[in-house]
Amino acid sequence: MGKAARKQNRVKEDVQVIGMKNIRSKGLHLGIVAGILVVLGVATVFALNIPGFSSVQKVKPVNGVVSIPVAKVSDGKAHFYQFKDSGKDISFFVVKDSDGAIHTAFDTCDVCYKAKKGYEQKDDFMVCKNCNQRFAIAKIGPHAIGGCNPTYLPSAFVGANVIVKATDLQSGAKYF
Q: So where are the chain's domains?
């Protein structure tokens, strides 16, 4: 093989190596773009509260009250709701404890409300997502107030519904 042929083979090999680097580089870029799109999609679902994708249900008062069927909240899991008033989204939850009692509270507390993180349920406890303090669901109510306790939200039962007055929800606007 002559000098020219060897040089031509080296040029072909260099072109192939450069081509492979370009293919790998394009694959990497496509992977990064795909990852960013997935993250943006998930963020959009949570930001827009798309029905069926969010664990927060929006509620509106009828005749001055929000009515939630007891059957919807009797599974022992915390159910989160959002009430809009004067441009503010006021969040609260309804949860049935292991003894069958239903508890209502704002999804905030007197201490951590500025972080706007709220609570999550872990077994028989509601856990502050800001400071990680745990509160027994059975103790949420008018006697467990202040500090990082879930801020009490009065409610009543009418027929097969949990009833929360719109005025009581509005009183919690300062936390949101």
A: 1-53, 56-175
Residue holding tokens 């349920």? 121
pLDDT of residue 156: 96
Report which of 35, 34, 53, 33 is spatially closest to residue 45, judged by C-alpha positions.
53
Quick one: CATH architecture of 56-175?
3-layer Sandwich (2.102)
Q: Which position has the higher pLDDT, 83 or 148?
A: 83
Contact yes or no for 154/165 (Cβ under 8 A): yes
The DSSP output letter for 140 is -
Residue listed under structure tokens 């694959």: 27
Burial of 128 (0-12, 13-18, 19+ CB in 10 A): buried
Exposure class string for 91-104: b at 16+ Cβ within 10 A, else e: bbbbbbeeeeebbb
Condensed to tens digits (0 to 9), the pLDDT of residues 15-61 reads 565 666 666 666 666 667 665 655 454 444 444 444 444 589 999 99
Q: pTM score, two decimals?
A: 0.69
Residue closest to 153 by CA, chosen among 168, 138, 139, 167: 168
∠ CA 137-66-46, rounded to 5° = 70
